[in-house]
Amino acid sequence: MSAGTEWSHQPTQVSSPSTLEITEPFDALNVRVVNGTVNVVGTTDGGPARVEISELHGPPLTVSCTHGTLSVAYEDLPWKGFLTFLDRKAWKRSVVVSVTVPAATRVEVGVVGASAVVSGISGRTDVRGVSGDSTFVGLTGGVRADTVSGNVEVQSVTGALRFHSVSGDLTVLDGAGGAVHAESVSGDMVLDLDPAKGADITLTTVSGEVAIRLPDPADATVEASTTSGTVSNAFDDLRVSGQWGTKRITGSLGAGTGTLRVTTVSGALALLRRPPFGDEGGRPGAHGDPAPGPHDDSPTGPPPGKKVL
Known about the structure:
It is a single chain. The chain is mainly beta. It has 2 domains: 1-119, no CATH class; 151-309, no CATH class. Helices cover 0% and strands 50% of the residues. The protein contains no helices and 24 strands. The chain has strands at residues 12-14, 18-22, 28-43, 49-57, 61-66, 69-73, 94-102, 106-119, 125-129, 134-137, 143-147, 152-155, 161-165, 170-175, 179-184, 189-193, 200-205, 210-215, 220-226, 231-233, 238-241, 247-253, 258-264, 269-274. The chain has a 24-stranded mixed beta sheet that branches. The protein is elongated and about 65 Å long. The protein starts with 11 loop residues before the first strand and ends in a 35-residue tail after the last strand.
């Protein structure tokens, strides 16, 4: 199939770079690929959806639109049980695919060794990754990310966020949603938040480090603990207890209508204060200066060696 081929309204196997315009109605997108890059963009311009496959190495991709779902996938890569897909022989392939869909589309993306970027979506987004990093930008619907070892970066997302990983890191920038639930075994978590009123934030990791930056004033009831890691707290209204063994940060910020619960067994824990945007350097990443970690006296930096907020 050559570039610019029109959509035939039938399941189509794509074996070379192609661009398809999808005129059939759908409300869900499912993408499943191995290696390469997936880029999903939500749009409100009312134009037809587009599937652009700019690079393709290995077996063909199948593009279909049935029962309200647009699918761009390898046929031997099922969505069910995706995270257990460990057939290394099937990894010898790669694709670069970009899909433009209506913003309200429900999006499912499964990647093995590929990176995924999803932006501008107001429907629910569900990404599963065996490896390969994922980035979410400007999403207003609910977001769920499940990875084995891939890292996840979230920017300017206002929908509820759920994250589960074995060893992948989670980075949240300008998070303004009403809920963040994150679990990992060894992955680190760095979150810069300006949460909605009454937000529910729960973070759990075994050996990963956790750094959270909140606005000042903040509005949350805080319960945070680490069994053997170091602790840093930037808020005078919170108490730090436990010189030996488990260390805890507890108390209320503002009216305490939201909740912040953090648990790490051996990782460092830092609760940081986000300077007002009107202050010099108040925006995350201002000036690009490296930030100190929870071992330092400064209250505004993430764990050492981690992504700068």
